[in-house]
Amino acid sequence: MKTRNLVLGVVLAASLALTACGGGTKGDGGDGADSDVPQKGGTLSVLLNADYSHLDPAMGFDGGVNNFYRLIYRTLTTNSTESGKTSEMVPDLATDLGTPSDGGKTWTFTLKDGLKFEDGTPITSKEVKFGVSRVFDPAQGIGSPYAKTLLDDGSGYQGPYIDKGKDFAAISTPDEKTVVFHLNQPYADFASVVGQNSFVPFPLGTGGGTAFDAKPIASGPYKVESYNRGSELTLIRNTNWSESTDAVRLAYPDSFEFTFGLDGATIDERMLADQSGDKNAISGGSLQPANVSRVQTPQIQDRAVKTTAVCTTYMGLNTTKENLSDPRVRQAINYAVDKSSLLTAAGGSQLATVANTIMVPSLLGRKDFNLYPSTDNKGDVEKAKALLAEAGLPDGFEMVIDTRGQPKMTALSEGIQQALAKVGIKVTLNVIDSSTFYEVIGTRSQQHDAAITGWCPDWASGATFLPPLFDGANIADKGNSNLAQIDDPAVNQQIKDIAAMTDVDAANAAYGELDEKIMELAPVVPLLYENGLQLTGSNIGESITGFNGGIDLVTVGLVKPGK
Amino acid sequence: MVSYFLRRLFSVAVILFFVSFLTFVIFFQLSPDPAVMICGKTCTPERIEQIREQLGVNQPFLTQFFTFLGGIFAGRSYGAGEAAIHCAAPCLGFSFQTSQSVMDMIVSRLPVSITIAAGAAVLWLLIGVSAGLISAIKSGTWWDKGAMMFALGGISLPNYFIALVLQYVLVVQLQILPFPSTPDFAEDPLFWFQSYIMPWSVLAFGYASMYARLTRANVLDTLGENFMRTARAKGLPPLLVLRRHALRPSLTPIVTLFGMDFAGLLGGALITETVFGLNGVGKLAADSIGKNDQPVIMGVTLMAALFVVVANVVVDLLYAFLDPRVRIKA
């Protein structure tokens, strides 16, 4: 499989220079077909603005850290690293994607042979069970919530540290190789769930408190050599990781050096300058919009990787507000917004594409549609005005939009403000500091008419996208993610029906259909799918853009490791 | 003298108490609920309550405040039973974001801030005081005008602007310096020096300008004093007059200022550290404010306040030593 990836990578290098499909590999600089093929060895640096949230996989839960975890941890399944198939789950520690029984309530996985932790102890079903049980600890289980939701057996189990000696009945281990999960409800896409960070195995009894945040125990190809929180992190090869058991991780470099705390502008300057040590570096985040225009020379273009969009930036319309409770008004707003100006504000087509659906293009089963079209996405003022008149608001109305006090978000909200002014809607912007933004908009009593924010899926299905945002059952006073506060019986029922489906592909397709149905009600305005533009040093080879966005760290390597 | 010292110590305690109270009110009471931020997406009300309990933010304000103060002097425990975590005195709590001990976070960042502050201080004292002295002696000449123009530039140009210009010219264009980082001195002294010289220079430029203007004004004032005329009339050589009679009284106000400035910098050179990506206490403060990590903001603020008030006491004592007139009054 690895050889095939490599070949695919080389072929793609040539083809992607011609297509702008954002498949995620670097373009061929014309130095010859083999010039970008990564080799084993060397030290690769990653320059980052902020440190990873947690090295403990029960606690960390965001795109950046998910990408990092795959270097040191393995899960039962994981996202593929095959180009064009990164949304798909493939077996990792397990031999396959699991076998359901009892109508999808019981899932059985068999572990591969020869799996070991960094200290050489074998990874058996017991270690997998222990790893998952950790997320039930109230202090540690702040990461991916799915294991907790699906495996909660109602016993009030609080994890292996508080409930020492108590058996966690939701997982049984009939032998060393077999793990059986007893779910509290049927779940067709459980193969995606066991790829979440909460399914990382750990040796029994380890990892109390914040131990793994300081010194994780690796099951992946690398282990932590040193870690100075907030400053630097060095990974070296985990000699007990066996390549023959892992068809996903290419693990080219001998070591990784992560530098944290660098200013975004400084990272851009360093990557653009490509001096000495930085030739072996990649930027951990996207280029700043202000620097996009500097990616002009063929040499720099060759070092720029356009990464896949993983999140949708959207404006939630609070359907409990008087004017916005009328779907026609919400549809009018969908027509009125000039998305082409928003695209410019977000850094142009290099950094984003216009969004018309709620689900991002990388999701399986997603349907491409546009219910509120306009010429060049500039907004249809006439249609919007007609709808407003129909709704009894021919002179428009006043509304307050919550937005984040950050340059790009402010630019987006100003673009919306100007577009809505054309149809008579007078917008006042409520700019909220970044540090408290999500807290404020997630508190129902503090929510205004609309809020501009984003949502990213946890795996490539509408399952982690549409229910949290549109299920009426999810409306909460605090920490509310259903910003539109939409509680439509038909939508709620359809979400329930899809969750009960046993065929994953059919469920994914149904989510694609539901996306369109929800957009007919227009509770949100999809604005942009924002991708990244990551710069790599001149000695960095081909890589794959992962499902989590950004260069997939398990696929990146140096062309000349000795350099 | 002893009662003077004790009175000063008491005022230090009172000031720190009020600083901690105010910071606590601002960051814990007036800012939004940290539990919701930690809870993240796919959050439930039960989880929010659980996190609030773990953080102790479900307690009444005064209980939280005095538990915090108690932690500084006697340490405290978080949670109960098997899962309890003890935080030894002086305990500033744990970061909401990373669960690290705030004290450890500050202590691990201090060496970087001390290195930046100490290097910059040497530069600005050398350059600022010398420039001020020369300007005063050669008052009205091109020397004086040139130095004062330079000083005006240093005061009016913001730190981040100078930092970015220096970085662009010296690192990106001329490539004579590396991008600043925080290497160990022992590993590679030259690289260490090259890494810190830009942050030192940026900080020193602003301070040196102030010091040059202050030194110039003080020396000019002193030169006009009667005892200077007497010294000159006694026939002492001009350099000796300058060194023995003019410099010492002119420098006492500089010592006061220096103590406060240096102590302030130990609390973190926020802008310089952030622009150059140096992980000192200032960067820690900036990052924590960005993430609303209240215990860390609180810890850094208290630490910075402690440095300044202690420096204030030290400076007052030094002042008495340097200027006999103060000693008599005390």
Structure described in brief:
Chain A has 563 residues and is an alpha+beta fold.
What would you note in describing this structure?
- The complex is a heterodimer of chains A (563) and B (330).
- Chain A is of the alpha+beta class and 563 residues long.
- Chain A folds into three domains: 20-54 and 216-305 and 534-555, D-Maltodextrin-Binding Protein, domain 2 (3-Layer(aba) Sandwich), CATH 3.40.190; 73-206, Periplasmic binding protein-like II (D-Maltodextrin-Binding Protein, domain 2, 3-Layer(aba) Sandwich); 311-530, Dipeptide-binding Protein, domain 3 (Roll).
- Helix content of chain A is 26%, strand content 18%.
- Chain A has helices at residues 2-16, 63-72, 125-133, 146-151, 159-162, 190-193, 211-214, 264-273, 298-302, 327-336, 339-345, 381-390, 407-421, 437-441, 466-470, 489-499, 504-521; strands at residues 43-47, 77-79, 89-91, 99-101, 106-110, 171-175, 178-182, 222-228, 232-237, 255-259, 281-283, 304-317, 352-354, 398-404, 426-432, 450-455, 524-535.
- Chain A has a six-stranded mixed β-sheet. In chain A, strands 8-9-10-1-11 form a five-stranded mixed β-sheet, with helices on one face. Chain A has a four-stranded antiparallel β-sheet with strand order 4-5-7-6, with helices on one face.
- In chain A, α10 packs antiparallel against α12 and α11 (339-345) runs antiparallel to α13 (407-421).
- Chain A is globular, with a radius of gyration of 24 Å.
- By secondary structure, chain B is mainly α.
- Chain B has two domains: 2-87, no CATH class; 105-327, MetI-like (MetI-like fold, Orthogonal Bundle), CATH 1.10.3720.
- Chain B has a two-stranded antiparallel ribbon.
- In chain B, α5 runs antiparallel to α10, α9 (226-233) packs antiparallel against α10 and α12 runs antiparallel to α13 (294-322).
- The longest helix of chain B has 36 residues, at 102-137.
- The radius of gyration of chain B is 24 Å and the shape is globular.
- The relative contact order of chain B is 0.13.
- At the A-B interface, α8 and α14 of A face α2, α3, α5, α7 and α11 of B.
